[in-house]
């Protein structure tokens, strides 16, 4: 840490804010923005005149608090991680039964050009050729009901 000995804590905190902000801009995954905010709070502590150990403590505590309290809110607000996968996208689609779905047993359906294993939502049999609607996905099986 001898290379930091000659630097002002203000310069170090400003540099950290810039580094964390640039990393966040490159990744866009809400991973380092919290540390940029914590570095800003530590910068304010440095401007007030707190010692370097107190500034580091302020940085660590504010990082933890920002992550704990604001990350869930930001994820909900920005809908991060809520994009439908291919499997979730079949919910609401319909298609024909290729292999009859027996009472509480699996059959096969064709949805969006793909063949899936399927179970009847209410456990009742569905015959070959009937149209079904996908209501849920459980593992690799579709849960369907008559369309």
From TrEMBL:
One of its GO terms (cellular component) is plasma membrane. It is a multi-pass membrane protein. The chain crosses the membrane at residues 6-26, 33-50. Pfam families: NfeD (PF01957). Keywords: Hydrolase, Membrane, Protease, Transmembrane, Transmembrane helix. Its main location: membrane. One of its GO terms (molecular function) is peptidase activity. GO terms for biological process: proteolysis. Residues 87-146 form the NfeD-like C-terminal domain. It is found in: Membrane. It comes from the Bacteria. PANTHER family: INNER MEMBRANE PROTEIN YBBJ. This is Membrane protein implicated in regulation of membrane protease activity. It comes from Acidaminobacter hydrogenoformans DSM 2784.
């Amino acid at each position: 840490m001898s290379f930091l000995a000659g630097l002002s804590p203000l310069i170090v905190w400003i540099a950290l804010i810039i580094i964390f902000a640039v990393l966040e801009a490159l990744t866009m995954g809400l991973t380092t923005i919290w540390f940029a905010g914590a570095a800003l709070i530590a910068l304010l502590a440095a401007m007030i005149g707190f010692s370097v150990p107190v500034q580091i403590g302020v940085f660590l505590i504010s990082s933890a608090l920002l992550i704990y309290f604001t990350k869930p809110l930001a994820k909900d607000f920005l809908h991060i991680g809520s994009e439908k996968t291919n499997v979730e996208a079949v919910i609401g689609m319909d298609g024909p039964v290729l292999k009859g779905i027996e009472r509480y047993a699996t059959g096969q359906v064709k949805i969006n050009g793909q063949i899936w294993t399927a179970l009847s939502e209410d456990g009742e049999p569905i015959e070959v050729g009937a149209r079904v609607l996908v209501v849920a996905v459980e593992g690799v099986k579709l849960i369907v009901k008559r369309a």
